Description:
This protein is mainly alpha-helical. The chain has a single domain, classed as Helix Hairpins (Orthogonal Bundle). Helix content is about 75%, strand content about 0%.
Amino acid sequence: MMPIPPTWCVYLGTGLFTIGVIGVLTRRNVIIILMSIELILNAVNINLVAFSRYFGEVDGQIFAIFVITDAAAEAAVGLGLLIALFRNKETVNADEIDLLKW
């Protein structure tokens, strides 16, 4: 069985990263923005694991586990804040959330 070449993983990671950045920059729904951030983090994880396997080290895989843990905490805190904002403003549109403005 032939292993997957690292270039394919880099292409996949680049594609996911690009979709995530476009989602963060163009969408107004906060839930979609959080999902796009998760896509960006997953693209980074794919590249970390691919290069870790290519170089025969486990450092990238360990770092990917920390990124996954951080992403889970970010999702939990982000969704908690989103629920609190929805209860106050009754919207999930990022343009209409202006709680920090005077």
